[in-house]
């Protein structure tokens, strides 16, 4: 799809066609959304679709998950006129942090951290990441927020797969993603 082309009819998820499949093998995500971010209307529509279910909800801060969640999270924060909090992979913050180990989508053991002075009890956060495949990364972010007394007001990602972890997140939190129901099976099967 041309990076300047905008279809005459823009249904939810039209911009998903901008994404490209991985050419680097199983140690990488199966689909790369970064080209979507280069398309001005596609990116705007993606953010609008992610935020639509949260219109009128009490959200104090948007938190983006390292690293690609920073793009969508910062755009969501700017749209909502809220602050942005980066939830980082361990070792990148030079302030007091709290850490949470997790297993990512490729099965690698990692640690995530967040600064301790950014979340106060009762603060309502919208957690944003690019993709929720197995749910491990998002669940670690949820645990960090809740351990500091924050409230997860919602979870948003381009896709939340119907994996065991993805289903758990959708059962316990208000969620938003951009994949229309008719396409969800293809995304779950990485097609």
Structural class: alpha/beta
- From the alpha carbons, calculate the radius of gyration and give it in angstroms: 16 Å
The residue-averaged pLDDT reads 94
Tell me the CATH architecture.
3-Layer(aba) Sandwich
Please tell me what the overall shape is: globular
CATH topology group: Rossmann fold
User: What gap, in angstroms, lies between the N and C termini?
Assistant: 18 Å
How many E strands?
A: 11
Low-confidence parts: none
Query: Strand fraction band?
Result: 25-35%
Task: Explain the overall architecture.
By secondary structure, the chain is α/β, with parallel strands linked by helices. The chain has one domain (18-188): Rossmann fold (3-Layer(aba) Sandwich), CATH 3.40.50. It is built from 6 helices and 11 strands. The protein has helices spanning 34-38, 40-51, 69-80, 136-147, 164-172, 184-188, and strands at residues 20-21, 31-32, 61-65, 83-89, 97-103, 109-115, 124-128, 131-132, 151-157, 159-160, 175-177. It has a 7-stranded mixed beta sheet, sandwiched between helices. A two-stranded antiparallel sheet has the order 1-2. The mean pLDDT is 94. Pathway: Purine metabolism; AMP biosynthesis via salvage pathway; AMP from adenine: step 1/1. It is found in: Cytoplasm. Belongs to the purine/pyrimidine phosphoribosyltransferase family.
